[in-house]
Amino acid sequence: MLVLGIETSCDETAAAVLEDGTFLRSNVIASQDEIHSQFGGIVPELAGRSHVERIHLIIQRALDDAGVQLNDIDLIAATQGPGLVVSLLVGLNTAKALAYSLETPVIGINHLEGHVLAIFLQQKVEFPFLALIVSGGHTDLCRVNGFGQYRILGRTRDDAAGESFDKVAKMLGLGYPGGPIIEKKARQGNPQTQVFPRAWLEKDSLDFSFSGLKTSVRNTLLKRNSDNGSSCSDEDIAAGFQEAVVDVLVRKALLACRQESLKRIVVTGGVAANGYLRDCMTEAARKEGIEVFVPKPVLCTDNAAMIACAGYYRSQHCPPSESDPFSLDAHPNLPF
After folding, report:
1. Is residue 324, in this structure, part of any structural domain at all?
2. pLDDT in tens, 215-252
3. Is the peptide bond before 128 cis (omega within 30 degrees of 0)?
4. What is the mean pLDDT of residues 100-127?
5. Domain span including residue 161
6. Domain holding 283: CATH number?
7. Distance (Å, rounded) from C-alpha 324 to C-alpha 302?
8. Which of 85, 72, 76 is closest to 6 using CA atoms?
9. Residue 116 has pLDDT above 60, yes or no
């Protein structure tokens, strides 16, 4: 079974061809970092236009790399939401047009389900497990009981972890995207030089909050830049900020495992590419006898392979009587 995956939820135009849910024939990703870097963040209108310009070229490249033709595709899976609506519409409408012309089934996929199942492109993980989804737009803890069986345990009440990395990098004048830049800077700093607050919320809460942390970083920079400010370096601030984010992510994930009696954690999403998070989560979980699984970095950031994977397992375990209707629409706040 060949599945064509299409992903345009934000600022990556991506297409992939997956065979039988395990063999990834191709995975093509076109980044828009050069377009948005000058603004320090994503400009939705520019993202949508770029998808329109690239989508057909990226799909064709994915087919060429896979050595297949459009007529060989058995199922098309495209991101339906959540995400930027101007971006989602490009990929979803392209998928529907292709499906209509080819008389091929089409399925709308929740972007977060794609992140959760990305690990299955790399290895099988026994159910149930805890999924920590950390990206630019999401920070969620989810209990995964099986394919299509998800229960949200906690989520951010304001800003996502990845968005916080981007904003702090912008405050420091380091560029965009902020995640890799902050991680690199943090390696050269001391997290104990500038300790930032953690928002734990109510007792035993599994929700997150990072808005106060961003404000604390901003106030620290204002103080540093004043006449009587500290001499704390950018590297120390980056290290202290990263430490604060990772500390909360790790401790909340382990708390969720204890509350749910789970022994496996899948860390996924763009921030899961952060090496410090991977190392801290693995070490802390090991002490409690919990296994940690993390997709390789290319499968953590937005990609179409994970959408194809989710589409494959949806068709196998939750098959619709027919393909999703062609009235399928984009939902920027699609619930998971």
Report:
1. no
2. 999 999 998 888 665 678 999 999 999 999 999 999 99
3. yes
4. 96
5. 126-294
6. 3.30.420.40
7. 23
8. 76
9. yes
Strand order in the sheet with 129-134: 149-155, 139-146, 129-134, 264-268, 291-293
- What's the structural domain count of the chain? 2
Domain shared by 106 and 141, yes or no = no
Q: What is the CA radius of gyration of the chain?
A: 20
How many alpha carbons fall within 13 Å on the CB side of residue 283? 8
Q: DSSP string covering 262-292, please? A: --EEEEESGGGG-HHHHHHHHHHHHHTT-EE
Please write the tens of the pLDDT for every residue from 126-164: 999 999 999 989 999 999 999 999 999 999 999 999 999
For residue 177 the two structure tokens come to: 């995207």
Residues 156/210, Cβ–Cβ less than 8 Å: yes
Q: Do 133 and 279 belong to one domain? A: yes
Structure tokens at 292: 């940690």
Tell whether 67 and 90 lie within a shared domain: yes
Question: Are 135 and 253 part of one and the same domain?
Answer: yes
